[in-house]
Design brief:
Structural class of chain A: alpha/beta
Strand content of chain A: 15-25%
Order of helices and strands of chain B: HHHHHEEHHHEEHEH
InterPro entries (chain A): COI1_F-box, F-box-like_dom_sf, F-box_dom, Leu-rich_rpt, Leu-rich_rpt_Cys-con_subtyp, LRR_dom_sf, Transp_inhibit
Number of strands of chain B: 5
CATH topology of one domain in chain B: Ubiquitin-like (UB roll)
Largest sheet of chain A: 21 strands, mixed
Distance between the termini of chain B: 69 Å
GO cellular component, one term (chain A): nucleus
GO biological process, one term (chain A): pollen maturation
Number of helices of chain B: 10
Oligomer: heterodimer
Subcellular location (chain A): Nucleus
CATH class of one domain in chain B: Alpha Beta
Largest interface: A-B, 98 and 86 residues
Organism (chain A): Corchorus olitorius
Chain lengths: 655, 260
């Protein structure tokens, strides 16, 4: 029985279905729904860029406007993935340049992005709006200049004669007339046609004016519509601070700019100030460390509509005029909800932000070396705080103050001020976290670095806060036991997984035996991501996790005595997960080969910088192992220290 | 508070035995774990493993009798892991959990992003005058620099604080770019650079030569300053073809002469 709804109706209905999960479900109802859905899906999330090929994505979803890609495994953040491993975005950009001329948004995480990729983005997508590069690397300010300049490059052109290929011409000619950007286009093809287009913003009033022979050949540009440029914590090779001057003087559509990762590299202030001043929709601005404190007031006064602001270096000699100017500038920003930056913050200048504190929902002080008394004063001014990132200088006393002032707190991250000291640098213990768990009923997400913990504290936290969804505890010295009882912390973490039924993400630390994994396998049914280090006694630990955690998507393990048995016994489980990382464990090369041979839908990568695994006995453990499901098959951009364990079919195909 | 002993349900792959609350004996002879492929489910219990519902048709049945006799699977994990670690990645001793391990820096631990580590390093240097003494300790902040090699398709990064001598660095670099020849970068080789005629011989060869960019932005040959000074001032490394590095040599010689 055929559906009586016309496709357009179904498409309209589907437009209300936003999440990937629901979209995937919709597409599996029947063939016609699959077809309709794939033509109207606009947003794609690819959690592992090697799980699928660009060609496959494009073939299934021809009308994508927004794409998010993730590359390297999470442990790359901690230098466990050698450089050159992979995660190159260029093949994706190149494929999408041809297939998605209307692409608006690209979000990348842990990928290698070259200047060439950025230049290709700038010239390929005429309606490009959002670029977010989170923990990426490989590009310089040259690439950023290309993004900023945008309209200096060549574009795809839509015309009655079909899509033209860029690259056939060198010049463009544009006039800014009243509020129009008048662009003269001349095109030569077999018909020698002259065309003129006028664009007004995006909606565009497109008209065609006459046709003449011409052998001059120019190309069209569009008003550059970039809204968001967010470099998160990427690594940028700085060659010149002038890239920011490449935003044209006519460019006014910036909504969000995050350059905080540029560190102490100087950015041209005057260009930055002018840019900020002419973009009335700018709501997010995160500066880098190089911007001194006395420049902040000027920038804020040009952008009183800011909602999120990140300072640069927040230190200067205390001068009353500078202070009052700064305080005045902050108070003129009536919409500010989020503050960050505060590098090298000097306590004397903190009160300048008091005027805005009552409205703040997010505060990132994790680069501010302010001590506890000043932090206590600050947080007590912020009753509406939902998110706090801070160093361990806050100490237990500061966290107790937080617990009593900030009843709306949802997320807390406490970072170590001295990660490599074996002795604590500040008086921050398990008590601080217990206090927050007691005082903040909405607390859902915790990242906590400390030096000591007890089972009792963990049990209390679990009982206080069963609504926790993310719990990441890092006890700095590996294998540290409960400092009161000297026992492992199995029972404490067991309480966490037992009480927090919606726990999605968990990171373990301290002294842990196989028992903790038994608890996790039994209780953590909604757990999606688990990070394990220096824990467990035997394969049984890994077996508990792989066989018990039904929702597990990502598992990353380092320095644990897990070997072949659990991995092989749960091979099928690996196809239900995005990825598994194991480094400095006891998985043998032989087991990796077996896994690779028998599981064609898994890519089994052996990462070993000691040379080919063939040169050692099969029972020898591999250094690092990265297993992920993929429909794209083995990749071909591997560096010399990565070996792919091929399945029998592909080995036959290649021979 | 004692949590009641847990009973382990049967997991995927069949054949899992019951496990009591106390640490289980490693009786793998009893459990006889098999390769848990899709479709190979012994017994029809529960079905909690989700991939069963996919209905895979393959039914490969591989029995791996990994008994405790096999050395690879049941070797003391500490030995195994130590064997994996290179010398410089010291792993804390696990046999004495009550005592905190020696101040050794393990790669990637604690899990703090290098972005944050570098930011904090700058902050601490600014704020505390005694940081130069404290950075003596093995756990001092990392000093990651990029290493590029002419002709190599990608950059590498090294943490200079992992090494104590030029020889160690040279070995690590050689391993990293092992498909290319590096030539003699031993400390004797470094000293050879300072001898002008030997330097010219070396540079005229086709070997590669390690150079670095120092704090002043100048490109210098690696090896001309004491190791500690090098670690402090090196911003990035570049392994150049010998012929290209010739231009550097006179400057390196001048800087060296000015210093001595």
């Amino acid at each position: 029985m055929a559906y009586s709804f016309p496709d357009e109706v179904l498409e309209h209905v589907f437009s209300f279905i936003q999440t990937d999960k629901d979209r995937n479900t919709v597409s599996m109802v029947c063939k016609s729904w699959y077809e309709i859905e794939r033509w109207c899906r606009r947003k794609i999330f690819v959690g592992n860029c090697y799980a699928v090929s660009p060609r496959m994505v494009i073939r299934r979803f021809p009308e994508v406007r927004s794409i998010e890609l993730k590359g390297k495994p999470h442990f790359a953040d901690f230098n466990l993935v050698p450089d050159g491993w992979g995660g190159y975005v260029l093949p994706w950009i190149a494929a999408m340049a041809g297939a998605y001329p209307w692409l608006e948004e690209i979000r990348l995480k842990r990928m290698v992005v070259t200047d060439e990729s950025l230049e290709l983005i700038a010239k390929s997508f005429k309606n490009f709006k959002v670029l977010v590069l989170s923990s990426c690397e490989g590009f310089s300010t040259d690439g950023l200049a290309a993004i900023a300049a945008g309209c200096k490059f060549l574009w795809w052109l839509f015309s009655d004669f079909g899509w033209l290929l860029p690259g056939k011409c060198g010049l463009l000619y544009a006039l800014y007339v009243d509020s129009f950007l008048l662009i003269m286009l001349y095109r030569v093809n077999d018909d020698h046609v002259l065309q003129t287009f006028v664009y007004l913003g995006l909606e565009g009033i497109i008209f065609q004016a006459g046709a003449e022979d011409s052998d001059v050949f120019f190309f069209l540009t569009l008003i550059w519509n970039l809204r968001e440029l967010d470099l998160r914590e990427s690594e940028v090779d700085d060659l010149s601070g002038h890239w920011i001057s490449h935003f044209p003087e006519t460019y006014t559509s910036l909504v969000s700019l995050n350059i905080s990762c540029l560190g102490s590299d100087e950015v041209s202030f005057s260009a930055l100030e002018r840019l900020v001043g002419r973009c009335p929709n700018l709501t997010t601005l995160r500066l880098n460390r190089a911007v001194p404190l006395d420049k902040i007031a000027n920038i804020l006064r040009r952008a009183p509509q800011l909602v999120e602001f990140g300072t640069g270096t927040y230190a200067a000699e205390l001068r009353p005029d500078v202070f009052s100017n700064l305080a005045g500038a902050f108070s003129s920003c009536k919409e500010l909800k989020s503050l960050s930056g505060f590098w090298d913050a000097v306590p004397a200048y903190l009160p300048a932000i008091y005027p805005v504190c009552s409205k703040l929902t997010s505060l990132n002080l994790s680069y501010a070396t302010i001590q506890s008394p000043d932090l206590i004063k600050l947080v007590s001014h912020c009753p509406n705080l939902q998110r706090l990132l801070v160093l361990d200088y806050i100490e237990d006393s500061g966290l107790e103050a937080l617990a009593s002032s900030c009843k709306d707190l949802r997320e807390l991250r406490v970072f170590p001020s001295d990660p490599f000291g074996a002795e604590p640098n500040a008086s921050l213990t398990e008590q601080g976290l217990v206090a927050v768990s007691l005082g903040c009923p909405k607390l859902q997400s915790v990242l906590y670095f400390c030096h000591q913990m007890t089972n009792a504290a963990l049990i209390t936290i679990a009982q206080n806060r069963p609504n926790l969804t993310r719990f990441r505890l890092c006890i700095i010295v590996p294998r540290t036991p409960d400092y009161l009882t000297l026992e492992p912390l199995d029972v404490g973490f067991g309480a966490i997984v037992e009480h927090c039924k919606n726990l999605k993400r968990l990171s373990l630390s301290g002294l842990l035996t196989d028992r903790v994994f038994e608890y996790i396998g039994t209780y953590a049914k909604r757990l999606e991501m688990l990070s394990v280090a220096f824990a467990g006694d035997s394969d049984l630990g890994l077996h508990h996790v792989l066989s018990g955690c039904e929702s597990l998507r990502k598992l990353e393990i380092r320095d644990c005595p897990f070997g072949d048995k659990a991995l092989l016994a749960n091979a099928a489980k690996l196809e239900t997960m995005r990825s598994l990382w194991m480094s400095s464990c006891s998985v043998s090369y032989g087991a990796c080969k077996l896994l690779g041979q028998k599981m064609p839908r898994l890519n089994v990568e052996v990462i070993d910088e000691r040379g080919p695994p063939d040169s050692r006995p099969e029972s020898c453990p591999v250094e690092k192992l990265y297993i992920y499901r993929s429909v794209a098959g083995p990749r071909f951009d591997m560096p010399p220290f990565v070996w792919m364990m091929d399945d029998e079919e592909s080995a036959l195909r290649l021979s | 508070m004692e949590v009641a002993a847990l009973k382990m349900g049967k997991g995927g792959g069949g054949g899992g035995g019951e496990v009591g609350g106390e640490k289980a004996k490693m009786g793998f002879e009893e459990t006889e774990l098999r390769l848990g492929l899709p479709g190979n489910m012994g017994g029809g219990e529960g079905g909690e493993v989700s991939m069963r519902k996919r209905g895979f048709s393959e039914t490969v049945d591989l029995k791996l009798n990994l008994s405790s006799k096999e050395s690879s699977a049941t070797v003391d994990p500490n030995d195994k892991v130590k064997g994996l670690q290179k010398e410089k990645n010291l792993l804390p001793c696990a046999t004495d959990p009550a005592k905190p391990p020696a101040k050794a820096q393990v790669v990637g631990w604690p899990p703090v992003r290098s972005f944050r580590k570098n930011m904090l390093a700058c902050t601490q240097k600014n704020s505390s005058g005694s940081s130069s003494e404290e950075s003596e300790k093995a756990g001092g902040s990392a000093a990651f620099v990029k290493v590029s090699m002419d002709g190599a398709p990608y950059l590498r990064k090294v943490d200079l604080r992992m090494y104590k001598t030029y020889q160690e660095l040279s070995d690590a670099l050689a391993k990293m770019f092992s498909s290319f020849t590096i030539g003699n970068c031993g400390s004797q080789g470094m000293k050879d650079f300072m001898n002008e005629s030997k330097l010219m011989d070396l540079l005229n060869g086709s070997d590669y030569v390690p150079t670095y960019e120092d704090k002043d932005g100048d490109w210098m040959l690696v090896g001309d300053v004491p190791w500690e000074m090098f670690v402090e001032s090196c911003k990035r490394l570049r392994i150049m073809k010998g012929t290209e590095a010739i231009g550097l040599a006179p400057r390196a010689m001048e800087k060296c002469k000015n210093r001595s």
